[in-house]
Specification:
Structural class: mainly alpha
Helix content: over 70%
Number of helices: 8
Radius of gyration: 20 Å
Oligomer: single chain
Strand content: under 5%
Largest sheet: none
């Protein structure tokens, strides 16, 4: 499988270059940074997710495969009916150089944190599939992926924190205050605090194990989803893209939460049985 993996990685890298070329063309045609609305932001996050996967590809080959799945899901969401791909003029508040800086940093963090979440999901499935015959190889693989998860969370949290501070500077220039507990601001802060707690699990007895890190990385991404999608569709505030009538909660959301809860419980039972003392 040596050469097929290499060829696949090369094709994946070429697709990444084409993705970046598409973003560049949109930037050229619109005259502004291509992350000014929901559609552009999701496409950009998918781009950063692939970048994160390529950075950590050498750590474990599974990283690139998981990255491809997540990037595909993001692009799938971007092309749903709720996203408008039309290139439009910027609203007045977005006509600032801070659009290029603040939004790029804070949404870019979602790519790294998303990679941590999808790798955590992979690890959870590996825990479930463990048995006495494959215990050693699964233990090694999950440890490698957990190291990558921690590194991507560190990078993502750093970008998320810096992006939040930069957003405060932009808010002061636009609205005359650094912080106003706007819905988007509040959930951005909540995301920073949640991921800061996750990174400090290793100092908390009972939470410093590999399983706790993976579960936290998976479920912690729900704060990012709420910050990006939940606030936009269900809350309102000074951010123009966070206004509008609430839409019904799709049926697949509670179903997905239930399924993730079930596999988390199953993976814990399997982990405690086979891997806890490894």
């Amino acid at each position: 499988m040596k050469w097929p993996l290499r060829i696949g990685a090369i094709l994946f890298a070429l697709a990444f270059v084409l993705h970046g070329f598409g973003l560049g063309m949109r930037w050229y045609l619109s005259g502004h940074a291509p992350w000014s609305n929901g559609y552009e932001a999701v496409v950009f996050i998918a781009f950063i997710t692939v970048l994160a996967g390529l950075i950590f590809y050498k750590q474990n080959k599974i990283v690139l495969a998981a990255t491809g799945i997540l990037a595909w899901l993001m692009l799938f969401v971007a092309h749903m009916n709720s996203m408008d791909p039309e290139i439009t003029n910027l609203v007045p508040v977005l006509k600032s150089y801070w659009l290029m800086i603040h939004v790029a940093v804070i949404t870019g963090s979602y790519g790294f944190l998303g990679l941590a979440a999808i790798l955590a999901l992979v690890n959870i499935f590996l825990f479930i599939s463990g048995n006495s015959n494959n215990r050693s190889i699964i233990n090694i693989t999950t440890k490698q992926l957990t190291y990558v998860i921690e590194m991507t969370i560190i990078i993502g949290l750093f970008m998320l924190t810096i992006g939040t501070f930069l957003g405060g500077v932009w808010a002061n220039e636009s609205w005359g205050r650094y912080w106003g507990w706007d819905a988007k601001e509040t959930w951005a802060l909540a995301s920073v605090l949640i991921y800061a707690i996750i990174l400090h699990f290793r100092f908390i007895p009972g939470f410093k194990g590999m399983f706790a890190m993976n579960v936290a990385a998976l479920w912690g991404y729900s704060t990012i989803i709420m910050t990006f999608f939940g606030v936009n569709f269900y809350l309102s505030g000074l951010h123009s893209y966070a206004q509008g009538d609430p839409v019904p909660i799709p049926t697949w959301i509670p179903v997905t939460v239930f399924v993730l809860f079930v596999i988390t419980v199953l993976s814990y039972l399997r982990y405690r049985q086979l891997f806890k003392n490894q």
